[in-house]
Amino acid sequence: MIKVGILGYGNLGRGVEQAINMNDDMELFAVFTRRNPDSLKIKSETAKVLSVDGIENYKNDIDVLIICGGSATDLPEQTPKYVQTFNVVDSFDTHAKIPEHFASVDEMAKKSGKVGIISVGWDPGMFSLNRLYGNAILPNGKDYTFWGKGVSQGHSDAIRRIEGVVDAKQYTIPVDSALDAVRAGKNPELATREKHTRECFVVAADGADKAKIEQEIKTMPNYFADYDTTVHFITKEELDKNHSGIPHGGFVLRSGKTSDGVNHIVEYSLKLDSNPEFTASVLVAYARAAYKLNKERVSGCKTVFDIAPAYLSPKTNEELRATLL
Amino acid sequence: MIKVGILGYGNLGRGVEQAINMNDDMELFAVFTRRNPDSLKIKSETAKVLSVDGIENYKNDIDVLIICGGSATDLPEQTPKYVQTFNVVDSFDTHAKIPEHFASVDEMAKKSGKVGIISVGWDPGMFSLNRLYGNAILPNGKDYTFWGKGVSQGHSDAIRRIEGVVDAKQYTIPVDSALDAVRAGKNPELATREKHTRECFVVAADGADKAKIEQEIKTMPNYFADYDTTVHFITKEELDKNHSGIPHGGFVLRSGKTSDGVNHIVEYSLKLDSNPEFTASVLVAYARAAYKLNKERVSGCKTVFDIAPAYLSPKTNEELRATLL
Asked: pTM to 2 decimals?
């Protein structure tokens, strides 16, 4: 059995707990928290809840630690720190800062002889893999990544910060006609506005100026100004009833030619009822890889690009060749 | 530059020649043939055409040999033979015999210190990878593979062997309603007949009994009896004009749950104008991997499951992390 620790018990940590239960070769040892452990109730009856202070004492009880913190401030500190003691996996998703995060994790992992796999999930993660495979196979081509339909936490938060907004949920939606043009091999050049639209469900405070809120959303730089945005004002009850899920997904396409007039379309898509539960499932598969790689005395920082697919599976290589190849 | 040899110059070998030209880090050294080399005209002006007899003399001129023979009789003999001298890649696609082929290539590759990558293409190949990733990430789920719309060479050949048939082309077509049920997360149990239909375009000899030919096709065991099959009789001119391409493609889906009522659909699809040209492009990407792995002193037989994605790309790991992750 691969013994797993979870650090952090938000949506992602809870998803990891569920994903571990789906895998017969894994068991949860403990959830580590920065809160008071007594205040935390977890689902697993056999696992402990422990304070992250003193986590090093469990060095021999844990094969892999899955770090479920946020990319803004938690992971840049936690992943290089805990890879000094454990094999770790994280879902660091600030694309622009990946090289920096990689370097700091790699330095510590090489010193400790552990494996740290970073930026695991679906984007970065499975989408990145499909971009790489597509580029390598069809070098004469173009990449397209579309996100949605799904909830963007960052955009929902941005709306909530507007004066007069009680609550809000924002959906990112790919533009069907753009997707269809890519699938038809037309290799379109697409502006930001042509790829995605944004749809917002907003609960306004009593007496708030809705026209002003709508205007503030639609003109917000970076978040909404470059998109066609629709704003719906609804009640708190409607929001809770119809928009409480965290679905997401998207599409990675590679369109490429192998000779004159001979075109190929490779399309990978995800339709996820729960963004954090799916991300957690990817983390757990890569936790298995971290464990297996470290058993082979591999150390250092890795990404999904560096890991042979067979490491993700509980099956032996012989079983994989006989059943899935 | 990675120097590549091609063994065999049918549709696949010609596709490999084109694919090498798409990759700036590769060059074709020679096409090796069992025919008289003087009878063969290739596209590349800088590469040689040589007899396969004496190929061992070019040991130091070739980094990877891409073997473009058939799976029935060529590859079981050629791949274990030539891996004694070269790093090799093949597209062996008889799924049931992969373990046997693996064992014979592995034995020879370990003796010679070379790398042999087998069963490269799209199925086996990219489809297999997606089955593995899907199974590892969503262990509580179901796999579906659909093929088409595309030309099945084996089924076309089977029709051509019927008395009174001059020529024929057979298309395998996935059933839309079955695909839609899978995409909707219904996890259907699908019989052979419910997944694919078969459409045949047949040129009959003058005076041939068309009703009898149609009956023979539709009742042919293994090939057609288990499917809903449509037969169209057309002229040789129509066949040449409208059915001369070799398109193919298909879909790999994984439908899985991460908790009660929380479902996820992962879908990978290919729409290929030319089956051999796409297969050739995958072979060339894995030829790069064979070269890089052997530089690291790796030897033995490998499949797509054993190869970290970064090996397929001409970019450095740093470039990949910065641009595609």
From this structure: 0.96
